[in-house]
Design goal:
- The structure is a single chain.
- By secondary structure, the chain is an all-alpha fold.
- The chain has one domain.
- It is 81% helix and 0% strand.
- The protein has 13 helices and no strands.
- α9 packs across α10.
- The radius of gyration is 20 Å and the shape is globular.
- The chain starts with a helix and ends with a helix.
């Protein structure tokens, strides 16, 4: 049972860490932009009780979704960060897909690779960003109401914080599970050249009943590690600069893990032969 549950974690990690230096180099810059300018606590996976309890108007909700300093001082870093992430994910998927098909990992012809990969991946990436922002707004609204009710009932602040933390984490996990087929659609468009509609339909069909637990666990796994490390750093009052550096490394690894996971899982579920496998599995 254990081996089956960690199947995709193991496959993804074997490939990722076999090429970790080169893949990490591709993602470190966009990861640093996200860590330093957007959500240094880790994409806002956990929303602090103090922040939620201070919500009084919509602008307060807006600044929980987007950092106040980011919007007021350097709003241009939002599109910069998103573009860099898109380019990194597109290029990584392009070179890994070629590696899976040919057995050769090459970083040549980057512009040709981006030209082929950015258009299909842009659609999924944009939709994921929109879904995340809407999700974050809804979560802040729900948690604000939740905290208001608990505080009026006289609940201890510690238990309110614990409840908010658990609900935030569970909400994000549920979001990951829901958007997993959408992530697979990007790989399906890239590999088969399908339209978005056909790719999404095909990706949903890849959900084998006996594979769901392993697929969900493999996707959630890196975010749980990220969440634990980020929470520990905040709890230990680690200096802000050190937190941002560590978060940059974590985000870079998570980006490449998720990108690799999507392709590894898609090839495995589709039964496509991988010519790179002889070296690693």
């Amino acid at each position: 049972m254990y081996n089956k549950t960690v199947k995709y974690v193991r496959m993804t990690c074997k490939y990722l860490f076999s090429h970790i230096l080169r893949l990490f180099a591709l993602s470190v810059v966009p990861a640093a932009v996200v860590a330093f300018f957007m959500q240094p606590e880790g994409f806002g996976l956990i929303i602090p009780t103090s922040a939620v309890s201070g919500v009084e108007k919509f602008s307060d909700i807006f600044f929980l979704v987007f950092k106040r300093e980011l919007i007021t001082r350097c709003p241009y870093m939002i599109p910069v960060g998103l573009i860099l992430m898109l380019l990194c994910i597109s290029y990584t998927m392009g070179i890994e897909e070629k590696h899976f098909k040919t057995g050769k990992l090459t970083f040549r012809q980057p512009f040709s690779t981006l030209n082929n990969c950015v258009p299909p991946i842009f659609k999924v990436f944009t939709l994921l960003v929109v879904i995340y922002v809407v999700y974050k707004i809804l979560v802040v609204c729900v948690l604000t109401l939740f905290v208001f009710v608990l505080e009026n009932l006289g609940a201890a602040s510690l238990w309110v914080s614990v409840a908010v933390g658990i609900l935030s984490a569970l909400g994000f996990i549920a979001l990951l599970v829901c958007v997993r087929p959408l992530m697979f659609a990007s790989a399906t468009m890239l590999v088969y050249g399908y339209s978005f509609k056909d790719a999404l339909s095909s990706a949903i069909g890849l959900n084998g009943a006996d594979e769901k637990t392993a697929l969900n666990f493999a996707l959630i796994f890196p975010f749980l590690i990220y969440l634990v490390v980020s929470t520990v750093m905040v709890g230990l009052a680690v200096p802000a600069l050190a937190q941002e550096i560590v978060n940059s490394v974590l985000i870079a690894l998570v980006m490449q893990y998720v990108t690799t996971y999507v392709l590894v899982a898609m090839f495995e579920l589709s039964g496509i032969e991988r010519r790179d496998c002889k070296k690693y599995y």
